[in-house]
Every structure is written in structure tokens, then in C-alpha cells.
Amino acid sequence: MFSELKQFIAQSTNDLPLTLSKILIWSVWLVYVGYLLLSDLPPGESLLHITSKTLEEIFNLSLNFWFVLPIIFPSEAPINNPTLEGLFNIVVTWAILFWGFVIDGRNQRFSIITFLIGTAFLTNVFFLPWLGLRQPNCQVPTNSLTFIEKIGESRILPSVLAVIFVISLGWATLVRPEYGDITTRWQALVELLFSDRLAYSFLTDMLVFWLFQSWLVKDDMARRQWHNQKILWLVRLVPFWGLIIYLWLRPSLELLEKQSADNEVNKN
After folding, report:
1. Mean pLDDT of 213-229
2. What span, in angstroms and rounded, lies between the C-alpha atoms of 253 and 222?
């Protein structure tokens, strides 16, 4: 069933008119917010009944963001379940990966920066609305890239995030031996997913990211005058790493700018 949903959403950017695509996006967002944040259907407490224990869990995970504090100052870092920490950092890393499309914010009514920052903190509460609010944007930039856009265009960004993804997996399976072997950790993670709203939300966010991670790619390809159906389907079907590979392989906008400038010089 999930694979059929994935196939439908992947095709919708080609087959659905713009209005219907936006209706789909906003419908998914309403279901996401209503179900995951406000309802009592998922495991754990909803946002309306959040407890101090959940707030403390969020705070402790945030303190250990990208494992900086546990590695540099291990005595000062909160002790969390390493599988939950790994899951948290994978979700945040995936959210930051969308900064590779910061150029999509050009000539839009709303600033993409606001939504990208929000996505890093609240994931699909902000990512889905950007997909719903943005207009199709296939234009090649006519002026130089800003500093933030250059970061988004850099191959360093996906490379660093790919490394952090691998570190997160290693952290979840290897650190803090008192949490047991891989089998024990997996069982503990499954229990968390069915009892803890925060863990459950991380899994839900990853599924939604996977469903919609390709929605900015088609315009981005057109913007670069690069049409590669194999890569497009790779992004649609392979979670996280499909997007990493796309950001590694796509043509550089700076190169297109240089070619455009050279053509103008040759004309003159």
C-alpha cells in the first residue's frame, strides 16, 4: 500500500495540474498536523497534552545535536537512548539537506529561508507549506549567487550531511554499550516507536520527507537545463541517498552563469 502511495505522489508532479498538486500538498499537511501533533491516535501524548518529560526529552536531544556535546564534553552531555539520538539526527540532517534547493526561493512571493529554517526545527510543519505556497520556478538565475545560495550549490553540503547520516547510524548501533547489542537496541527502538510520540514523529517525518523529497527536483533540473529521468526516479524512490546523489551530480549553476556571460561577450 505504501509503495502505491509513493508511486502516485511521485507521478503527481508530472500528471496533476498545479491546482490539484497544491490541494494534495495542503491535504497531506492538514492530515499530518491533525494526526501527528493534535490527535490522540498515535502513541504518546499529543501537543495538546504535552508533558514536562517530553519537553525534557526534546531539550536533551537538541543539546546532543550532531553529537558535538557528547564527543567534546561527554560528562556534560545528557544521556539519551542512542537509537533515539541517531533517529533524531538523521531526521534533522534530512531536513537540512533541502537547503540544496535554496535557489528555488528566487522570485517567489515568500522567502524560502524562513521555511528552510523552520524545516530544520519542525520538519514537515514547514516543509510541506513551502511546497504548497511556492510557484513553479525553472528560470536560470540571471545574476550572481548569494552567499547562502553558494552554500546550497556546494557539493560540500551533501557530502557533510552524508557523513553525518553514517555517523548517526554508527552512533545508534555502537555507542553506550550499556544499551546492549544491535538486536537489543532494535527491539528498544521498536518499543519506543510504539510508545513515544517523539520517536513516532521522527519515523513519520522520514516517511513524509521520502514521499515529497523529489518535488523540487524537476524544476531544479529544468533550471540547470539538465533532464535525466534515471536520476529523477532515483530521487523519487531512494530515501535520503537519492537526494544526496542528485545534489552531487547536478550541473553547477555557477558554470551555467559563466557560460551565459561568455556568450554575451562573444555576441558583443
Report:
1. 95
2. 11
